[in-house]
Fold each of these.
Amino acid sequence: MTDSSPLATDDANAYRDRVRLPRQRGLNRFARHAFGLRPSCDRRCASRAPPRVNRRSAVDYASVDFRHGATMSTLPLIRPIHPIRPHDLLWMADARDLIVDAPAPAWVTSAWLVQAPVVVRREDTGDSERLPVGVRGMTRAERLAGYLPLSRVVRRVTPENVVEGSASILSTLDANLPCLQAFEQVRARLDGLGFAWGVTGSAGFALATGIRVLRDTSDLDVLIRIPSRPADDVLDACAHACADAPARIDAQIDTGFGGFALLEWRARRGRVLLKTARGPVLVEDPWRPARVEPAQTDAAHR
């Protein structure tokens, strides 16, 4: 039964002013300034311009949270300002949020899922609230495809965020690894090209979390976003920026329609393999894939 007496109303208003509203404002402020994201519960911001993203990458906050034993379930649920895209790293609110079609292997534990992010895959699920993701383990053989409800995402790190926040994580990893040496070598070169770029794959996972999954044989996976077709010499400059590195660099160009391998484009004979949400396709122009043919390949949709 609800007490509607004036005294009860005054007490409720006092509680709202002293406790509930300040606490809610604190959560909103935390989500905006720490992660550059808008909380789903902050309705007042819906009609305003999105807050400016804090350039202190969310990667820094990830390492602090894990070192102090916190879990992602202790953070408020948040809604990203920008659309979630392939290669983004996502943390879930609870290990039970992961949806898989078959029983998960033994290495996929609850403890792992609350500290290690999942990566967004290229797949058309037909439902914007159902995200295709992949779980990565400690070894190359440990991979699992699944799905994650958008409403259960508590944190997101893009490939660009990985680069921005790498300084605090590099000191915790083995700097002698060839792929990390390659990252340090090509970083200034890629910054000079003027395109948005980031690190994906195992190197991106390690730089975002500090988890030691890298080996001496690990490649450096780089994603360069070029939304409109550039001149051929621009793509040549991208290739030269990734050349002569201590480790093999797998550079992928993201056109907005999908991604293709830079080296394959330079060595192409008419068409190139474009990885899209509906599978890999052969196209003549990856920036205008009007006519496509399904590719006969087992390449992963990433």
Amino acid sequence: MAKFKFKKGDTVEIIAGDDRGTKATVLAVLPKKNKVIVEGCKIVKKAIKPTEENTKGGHLNKEMPIDVSNVRKVEA
């Protein structure tokens, strides 16, 4: 397995996609999938069904993984 150059907490810049130019923090690293989850980028709405804890249900905004080729590490 190749060495991964990103760690949780690193500051990165999105270099491709809808969030191009955004600088944010890495929340999680997924080395097997070759992806990272970046705070506030690639947000999708997930529908939540009503449950006993959440009787209303509704929508949840969630960050989705971004391929590492679309992310560049920024020296702080």
Amino acid sequence: MNKGEDNLVRTSITVPEQLLQKVNELIASGYFASRSEIFRQALREYLQRIEWTERVGDEEYFGALTYVFQHERAEPELVKVQHEFTDVIISTTHIHVSPEKCLEVLLLQGPGKRIAELAKRIRGVRGVEQAKLTVVSSEGE
């Protein structure tokens, strides 16, 4: 158990049935001990990524922001956001996943704070279902 987790609190969440089925399959395969453990680990990882966006400064980073979205619902707002961040977006790739969904990958270079703000804005667009930011320092650290 991690430090600070000795006072666990019970809560409940609502997830799509297919997602819960995948969680149960991972547990049955031995990847995780329980549903609680998989959700705790996923939350820790997600919160660490979000916390980076809150503390990063103006150091230069390279990165990729990959996201899946509902085409008709999100695309107009996504285009607007992308136009506000042309200073850090160096390339965009767009793939049609299905008639309703698309995947985009933005290749990024620039101040970490600006990249973090872009990721925050993309995640906040209604219709974005998943978004993952991966960054590396230009210093190689």
Amino acid sequence: MTNGNGTPPEAAPPPQLNVLAQYTKDLSFENPNAPASLAPQPQQPAINIQINVGAKALAENEYEVTLSIEGKAEGASSLIFSFELQYAGVFRIVNVPQENLHPLVMIECPRLLFPFAREIIATAVRDGGFPPLMLDPVDFVGLYRQNMDRQAAEAQQASPN
């Protein structure tokens, strides 16, 4: 295929995703029942983890993506520990079609941030006197789909029939 004058058309520039910065926006660790909570527990604590992703445009082609992770460990009768982390990154994204931009920001950017957030949480829990909490990998595609389905259902409920 040619561009009309016998030369092949120039290839479109490749998509680019650059991490410009990564940082902890907020970190909280609570061990409200220490030192009693540090004693051996009769059973494994119930651990509950909540993960959310937020994003906002900062400038043309630049986005701040925040990975929010909250968790708590509870024993039979009390809270053992809890934590909250907001870990963010600034990303420059160029040459990406508009229809692919939202999934890229909400799936790939948090996937790049997650290992760093996981390490911060493991260290905070360890420094709180417990074995490090190693979070399992997160299916950000599944999380994205779940959030999109929830938003679609909310929009459908809000619109009159």
